[in-house]
Design brief:
It contains ten helices and no strands. The protein has 234 residues and is mostly helical.
Length: 234
C-alpha cells in the first residue's frame, strides 16, 4: 500500500501557495469526471487534494468559486494557445483562421463542460464582484486574441461569439442520454409502450465522440466562412 508523506499544514512561500492552489484545482477537476457537480462537495475535494477542509477554504470560499477558477484557467490556456499559433502562422484566410482556432481547441471537452457550468450554475451563484473580475480578466485576454485575428475587429468578435455558442451547443449534444434501441414493427415494445418523444430525439441526435469532434469542426468552418462572406464588401 502506497503511503503519502504528510503535507505541511500551511504553504508559506508564494511558490508553495501556487502549487497548493493548482493541486486543489486538479483534484476538483478529476473528481468532476466521475461525480456530478451537484453531488461534488468541498469535503471530497479536500480529501482528494490531501488537505484539511479548513486549509481548502484558505484558497476558495465556495465550490462555485473553485470552479470559476477552473473556467478562468482553461479559457486563459486556450486563448494563449490560439494567440501563439496565430503569431507563428499569421493566417490570412478564413479557412486558415479556422485551422488555428480548431487546433488550439483540440481535446477541448473540459473547456466546453466548464462553459456549460458557467452559464447554468456559476453565474448565478458566484459573488458579483468576483464574477466581474473574472470577465474583466477574460476580456483582457480576448483583446490580445482579437488583435491577432486577420479580420476586422467587429467580424472577429462575431466569430468568437459563434464559436462560444457552438461549443455550448455541442457539449449539450454530447451529454445527451444514451440512445434507445429502435424497435421494429415485428418487435413491439413490451406492453405496447410508446417511445418517449425526448428519447426519440436523443436517439436521432446521439453521435459518437469522434464524430462529434469532426462535426464540430465542420460547423466552426461553416460559421467562419459565412460570417466573413457576409462581412466582405460586395
Amino acid at each position: 500500500m502506497t503511503t503519502h508523506p504528510p503535507r505541511p499544514m500551511r504553504a508559506r512561500s508564494l511558490a508553495e501557495k501556487q502549487q497548493r492552489r493548482a493541486d486543489i484545482l486538479c483534484a476538483a477537476e478529476d473528481l468532476w469526471t466521475t461525480t456530478p457537480y451537484a453531488d461534488l462537495s468541498m469535503n471530497q475535494v479536500a480529501s482528494a487534494a490531501q488537505l484539511a477542509k479548513g486549509t481548502l477554504y484558505l484558497y476558495f470560499d465556495t465550490k462555485e468559486e473553485l470552479f470559476l477558477a477552473l473556467v478562468d484557467g482553461h479559457l486563459a490556456a486556450w486563448i494563449a494557445r490560439a494567440a501563439a499559433i496565430l503569431e507563428e502562422r499569421g493566417p490570412r484566410t478564413p479557412s486558415q483562421l479556422a485551422d488555428v482556432l480548431l487546433e488550439a481547441g483540440q481535446d477541448s471537452q473540459s473547456v466546453r463542460r466548464l462553459l456549460v457550468l458557467l452559464g447554468t450554475v456559476l453565474e448565478r451563484r458566484v459573488r458579483p464582484e468576483l464574477l466581474q473580475e473574472f470577465y474583466q480578466n477574460l476580456n483582457a485576454h480576448l483583446e490580445r486574441l482579437l488583435a491577432l485575428m486577420p479580420l476586422e475587429r467587429e467580424v472577429s468578435v462575431r466569430v468568437l461569439r459563434h464559436l462560444y455558442a457552438l461549443a455550448i451547443g455541442w457539449q449539450h449534444l454530447s451529454e445527451q442520454p444514451q440512445p434507445i434501441q429502435p424497435q421494429t414493427r415485428s418487435q413491439p415494445r413490451p406492453g405496447g409502450a410508446q417511445i418517449d418523444p425526448v428519447q426519440g430525439l436523443n436517439c436521432v441526435l446521439n453521435i459518437g465522440e469522434h464524430d462529434a469532434e469532426e462535426e464540430f469542426g465542420l460547423a466552426v468552418r461553416a460559421v467562419i466562412d459565412r460570417v466573413t462572406r457576409v462581412a466582405a464588401p460586395a
